[in-house]
Design goal:
single chain; three-stranded antiparallel β-sheet; 7 strands
Length: 115
């Protein structure tokens, strides 16, 4: 993704058998955004609730859409670097909090050349 942009990320919640988990079965869904190599939290996004609130929406068939913010793809902490690696870490509980899941999606943020 280009630095400072607001891309979206999609994924589908599934149980161990591969069946979609509907939003009504989810107890919690949180998002952490961190530097992949150092683990430093980006844009204060540390276990932020995204269960159909804020950056996250979940459709009836269990599809999650996360809308990233400009600060999520900022490279202000590493001026001059051409790129950085980031991770979205999504944690969820379902079936009244008894079952858990986690997904990590890594992506690259690129500093684009100026005019």
């Amino acid at each position: 993704y280009a630095e400072g942009t607001t891309p979206s990320y999609t994924a589908t919640f599934e149980d161990p058998s591969g069946n979609p988990i509907p939003p009504s079965a989810l107890t919690t869904v949180t998002l952490t955004i961190c530097d992949t190599l150092t683990g430093v939290i980006i844009n204060d996004c540390d276990r932020v609730d995204i269960l159909n609130t804020g950056r996250g929406t979940i459709s009836a068939d269990g599809q999650l859409t996360i809308q990233l913010l400009p600060g999520d793809t900022s490279m202000a902490e590493v001026p001059g670097l051409p790129s950085v690696q980031r991770s979205l870490v999504i944690d969820w509980t379902y079936s009244n909090g008894v079952l858990v899941g986690r997904r990590q999606a890594n992506f690259t943020v690129l500093a684009l050349a100026g005019p």
